[in-house]
Amino acid sequence: MNRRVTSNDVAQAAGVSRATVSYVLNGRTGQSISAVTRDRVLDAARDLGYAPSTAARTLRRGRSDLVLMLLPPEPLGRALAIIIDAASEEVERQGLRLVAHRLPAQGGAPSLVQSLAPAALILITPLPEQELAALAATGLRVASLHQAQENPLAPDLGIGARQVQHLAEAGHQRIGVAVPPESGYAWRVDVRLAAIEDACARLHLPPPVVARLGLDAGEAAAVVGRWLEGPQPVTAACAFDDEHAFALLAGLAAHGRTAPEDLAVIGAEDIPLASLAVPPLTSVSVDAQSLGKRFARMAVASLDLPENGAGDAQPAGLPPVRLVRRASA
Predict the structure, then answer these.
(1) Environment class of 236 (CB within 10 Å of its CB; exposed 0-12, middle 13-18, buried 19+)
(2) Integer Rg of the chain from CA
(3) Would you call 95 helix, strand, or coil by DSSP?
(4) pLDDT tens-digit series, residues 169-181
(5) Do 67 and 139 fall within a single domain?
(6) Would you tell me how many other CB atoms lie within 10 Å of the CB of residue 8?
(7) Which of 212, 236, 251, 306 could form a disulfide with 220 if both were Cys (CB 3.0 to 4.6 A apart)?
(8) Residue 296 and residue 288: Cα distance in Å, rounded?
(9) Which of 243, 234, 233 is nearest to 281 (CA)?
(10) What's the total number of domains in the chain?
(11) φ and ψ of 162, to 5 deg
(12) DSSP state of 253
């Protein structure tokens, strides 16, 4: 069996010390190593097929080269997928690797962190106070909208407020809200509803009428029927995302009704299919790519990394959402 190539083999081939090999291959700055020596070490490592031991490096540093992103226990939607991709690209620029993990409803973040020893943690889902305290005790760098922002509505990114504002400007007073019933969405649903209720209160509108709606045409038809035929008919609806907006459009069609004449419908996330809906769907666009980059920069800003420019220019505030006007609202 072939013996594993070690840093000592690289040092002998390059004619330098193991310390010099370590400085060069780990990208550490502040050492007076000439460009010629650095190139000689890199050439020797490449020629020998040297691959540094991840386990040994983790033991030496007390952390791995991983940035752990904890996701909520919900299906992976398009916006979340873009956030993960953008964050992954950003941490890879720093020589790290992103690992995204869907955290179960029962939690378990501290034990996962202990087993992986990540360099930093990105929270896309809130954690119980006791788990946050356990993570804080480790000194681990944590990037989170839930703890980093003073405004408790900040994790909604302004989506619900923008939906209500648009509908109110169009003259609607009685607003419905369609949200998913699954428990995995609970934290995002709670924040969205709080944001919509807050926006309605600020604009002196009645409290919104909330419906828990699965992506089912029959359920959607029942919800739309209740809204339209009630003693105080709902004239406009904020959907949790574009998919739930599509469900509302299907519910309208089942009654022979249309948007926006019978019910104005506005979605969120502006997925590519939004423009192909009948009628084309008005939606609130989220800059998921900028949000993913921001998470990554927050996570690695304080790490001792070579050429760590991630923390030099922290973006101010959150990436703004944008209303995309189409025919449905």
Answers:
(1) buried
(2) 25
(3) coil
(4) 999 999 999 999 9
(5) yes
(6) 11
(7) 251
(8) 12
(9) 243
(10) 3
(11) -70, -35
(12) H
